[in-house]
Amino acid sequence: MARRSSTQPKPGTIGALASVHLRRGRAFFLKKVSYAMPIKAEAAAKTLPGAKIPTTAPPSTRDHLIEVGLELMRRHGYGATGLQEILGAAGVPKGSFYHHFGSKEEFTGAVLERYIAIEGEHCRQVLGNMRQPPLRRLRRYFEDLVRTAGQSAPIQGCLIGSLSLEVAGASPLLQRCLSSGFTHWQAAVTAVLLEAVEKGDLQNSTRPETLASFVLNSWEGALLRSQADKSDDPLKDFLHYIFEDLLAK
After folding, report:
1. 210 CB contacts (<8 Å, ≥6 apart)?
2. Cβ-contact 73, 159 below 8 angstroms
3. Whole-number average pLDDT of the chain
4. pTM of the entire structure?
């Protein structure tokens, strides 16, 4: 009988469960990162003195529309971003839009997919850095989100959260996209919490999936309050109570 490799976790153990959640989270977040990488590489190159921006092929009309729609919807929301605003900002005729998308709803689904891919690449880079302890990686991840979604960011808020409030109750298609985004985001956080349990950083009685759900729900609530108050204080409170109380040894 073949022997199990010593590098593979035994079925039913925390290590096996962590492996499953990590694969789920990474598979989802890596699925569309090819959209995000040229944008991030160009932005990074611009910040380096004397750096040359790599030559890349111009985006297709479809990709250009999605990029424009992503910025407009992040700034103004779904309802305030009309088709004419999208076409005007993109410099694209209406016929080209309907060649690629059957409706604004379908277009918004593609915008969400792009946003999740970009955010997923950041999640993979930070949470996948195995050189750091799991809870330290998780804190760094949310500290990064405070900088990129808080009041000092060029565009505040989270598109998944804002669209959940605005359209999830009216569009079954977008509701499924939003729910899937949260589910796989939660899987990535769950994998880190499972690793923390396995390493003894959290108690064995910890329920990582439930805890990951609570952490993400708390983050989205804090982000919403931050926007209402025009203050990062709710985000700072989130970091303090999650990492210095709830997840402290």
Report:
1. none
2. yes
3. 84
4. 0.78
